[in-house]
Amino acid sequence: MAVSNQDEEDLLLDSLTYQRDDLADRITNLEDLRKNIPLDNSRVSTVSDTRISASLGKLDTLPLELVHEVILALDLQSLTNLRAVSSTARALVNSNPAYRNVLTHAPDAIRAYITTSLASSFNIAQLLDTLCTQLCALCNDFGAFLFLPNCIRCCWACLTQHPDLLPISAGHARVIFGLTKAAAGKVPVMQTIPGLYKMRLKSCHMIRTEPLVSKLTARRIGSAIHGSREKMEAHVAKIRAKQDAAYEKKIAIYHEELAERFEKWERERPSFEEVRAAPMIKKPAAPPFSGDVDQKDDDVRRLLGVIPFPTLDRRTGRRQVGVSCKGCTNTLPIELIPNEFYPQGIGSGHAQYDGRKRELARMFTDEGYLKHYAECGRAQSLWEFKSKGPSSPL
Ligand SMILES: [Zn+2]
Ligand SMILES: [Zn+2]
Q: How far is CA 213 from the centre of its chain?
């Protein structure tokens, strides 16, 4: 019996793609998130039973269309609080098409926003918009993850490599984006979720919550208060040059003092006790700008503000989590790529190494995969081998 095109496509997708549980396992533990934030209000309700009533107060007096407008505009935290008021309020919020879509297809995103204290910074309309996109906001690949601090979609390669997707401390953001204390207060702070995070080669058990902010937001606010990004960068560069010059002076004095001391010791040959008792010459601290190094794949902060995020087709209601190509990934694991491919180590920007790394983590929608298949020689060979069976001379 001849197979239809659709059947062949389904078979091809079944045989040549797989879901990336390995990547999802490296970030926030969704089981814990679901246990802690059930979204059924049995645990999150902060309202006592005596206050629960069928009335919605002022909301009751508005026409239903306006109530739904209000729901769309309310931030996720206010919406969660409203759902906790009564079963009527909860039913009303749940009946909002945007909320219902997110609750049905990506409830973990709402949970993650509540847990990270970022729920006051975004509303359900923004979250639904991002849910209905497919591409990483930083490149043109499919993005299977949600970068919480900006409510944008991203791919694994950008998540672990792109300089803007490294969440940093509010203090460092102030330094590198020239923020005043008041301006820094406008940058939403993400309280990271404790748990086990797996980097490229090692794991990190985050015991405490870590307050971090988005570089993208801090830069936007910095650019706004300085007039433009160029002006902000010029201002920061000026401060940085001053700090660097001061540091160079201090470090030169430090080396001079060290040299003098060794010369003196050469001349005077002090006893071991005298050497031990001599006050230490303290090395000057590096200037604030150099206080934070981005370790790319090995920087746990990159894994703290992200969850797997499906994509939803508004028109058909179809949800997809994304798949990877067995042809592209069933080859050499990245840890075993010979050293000559990345002589400077991780994040070296070495094109061949970074390209292979992107390929290994690349994900597609089903439609995207079928286009990729047409260009992927390795997937085509695999398909040919699979179709012919193990007795194939291949
Ligand atoms: Zn990307
Ligand atoms: Zn491929």
A: 11
